[in-house]
Amino acid sequence: MPHPGAQVARHSNSDASSFDPDFLEHLKNFIPLVFKPQKIVEKKIGGSYVTGNVLMSFVEKWAKIFKTKELPPSKSVFEATAELQNEMAKAAATDYYARKMKESISSGENPGLELNQLENKHR
To answer: What is the full DSSP assignment across 20-54?
Structure first.
């Protein structure tokens, strides 16, 4: 890949017009090669598969840590990773619980229990 241009190198918040046209042309060719479905491998963090949105959350959190000019302590990176893994686990457990409760109510396994009654109990 060619250099993105001096303007981009000097400023961290450059827009697309700041990039060297040669870089943009190479980027247009590079992106489709990298993101071919056959080349995409499911990503794991801490042994768990992550979605694109979760991976983006990790990148955003890590970017904040590495934004300073000093190298962050490894504890900060570890804590950020652990925090996001806990958030992922909580979201997955909540989704599982909600799905199973709805299935249970809609299947008729719990006669007399209405969905709105259950929702009121969970507020």
So the answer is: -HHHHHHHHHHHHHHT-TTT----EETTEE--HHH
> DSSP H helical segments within the chain, as ranges?
6-10, 21-34, 52-66, 74-107, 115-121
Given a contact cutoff of 8 angstroms between Cβ atoms, the answer to whether 72 and 65 are in contact is yes
62 with 78, same domain?
A: yes
Question: What is the Cα–Cα distance from 67 to 12, expressed in whole angstroms?
Answer: 10
The conformation of residue 13, written as its DSSP 8-state character, comes to T
15 and 2, same domain (yes or no):
yes
Q: Which residues pair with 44 in a beta bridge?
A: 49
pLDDT > 80? residue 24: yes
pLDDT of residue 111: 63
Residue 89 sits in the same domain as residue 115: yes
Distance CA 21, CA 4 (A): 8
Domain ranges, residue 36: 1-40
Length of the chain: 123
Report the pLDDT value the prediction gives residue 110, as an integer from 0 to 100: 64
Distance CA 97, CA 99 (A): 6
